[in-house]
Amino acid sequence: LAQTLWGELFPLVWATLAPDEQQALHKPLGLIIARDCNKQQELRRPNVVQGLLESIVRCKPVPQIAAPILRFAGRTYNAWHASLSILEHHIVAMHSDGGRADPEEVIDALTDLYRRLGEHDIMCGLWSRQSATNETKVAVSYVQYGFWGRAQDAFYSAMAKAQAGQLAPNKSDKAVWEEQWIASTKHLNQWDLLTQYAKDVNQFDLLLECHARNGDWEALRELLNDPMPTDPSQTKIFEIYNALREARVVEAEKGCNEALQFAIKTWCTLPEMTSSVLAYAPLLQSLHQLVELQESVQLIDEVAKS
Predict the structure, then answer these.
(1) Which of 79, 99, 200, 223 falls 20 to 30 Å from 242 in CA-CA distance?
(2) Which of 15, 6, 119, 109 is nearest to 59 (CA)?
(3) Could you report the per-residue pLDDT of 79-92, keeping only the tens digit for each?
(4) Which residues contact 90 (CB under 8 A, 6 or more apart)?
(5) Burial 109-136 (b: 16+ CB within 10 A, else e)
(6) pLDDT value, residue 99
(7) pTM of the entire predicted model
(8) Does residue 98 carry a pLDDT above 70?
(9) Inter-residue contact 233 to 266 (CB < 8 Å)
């Protein structure tokens, strides 16, 4: 009731303000959304941030909230669609005012949110729109249609041309080249190549995955003993694999429980499945993997006791 009432009243009050008053409130609204105290309601539905963003979407004109704040709030407080709507309003408003170039941070935020929602085609479209080179557009098209070999070659060629000074890519181009070259190489199962790359650029997460895929358990164990900032969910799964290999059943079972708790928390941050089914695919794959690991723990435990 409180959220519904706020959603009705706030746009009405906003419409009564003068343009300069509205402009002065843009930054304070962003600061309210980004406050640390909101984290206490992170898993509550509805929550304060959801109510604020859903009411902001209904305002005319839509308040200009900083793109990084919307990017964080959307994925943290299950306010995906409200954040996306506000970001899209930013771009429309900028073009209405005569601007031609899309603000980079807005496109980056849109791309990140759509990627997490599994909207692959929209993500590729945003990459192409933001690109400064034809090479990126061609390579992204290969990714969009699943031609991983051609995509890998195209991204590598673009990086080689840029290094030779034949291309003038922007920051987003470079990020897409690296990220999608890695993704294409994964699809092609070229884990030895990725292992060497991960060592050269010191990518901890990628190196963990490469060691696990190659079955290099000794290298994996050494890497886990010297942890760096990383994705906790994926690292936990590798720790469970390592514990099972060394028959440390209690530690593996504890790791499974911790990973399941993290997965449940992630599930709560996703939108309703009816609106974004693809957003659940990576999480469901991880949950299936955890179920298999739990069964392995039980099997090893029963064999040890028999």
Answers:
(1) 200
(2) 15
(3) 999 999 999 999 88
(4) 62, 64, 67, 103, 106
(5) bbbbbbbbbbbeebbbebbbebbebebb
(6) 60
(7) 0.89
(8) no
(9) yes
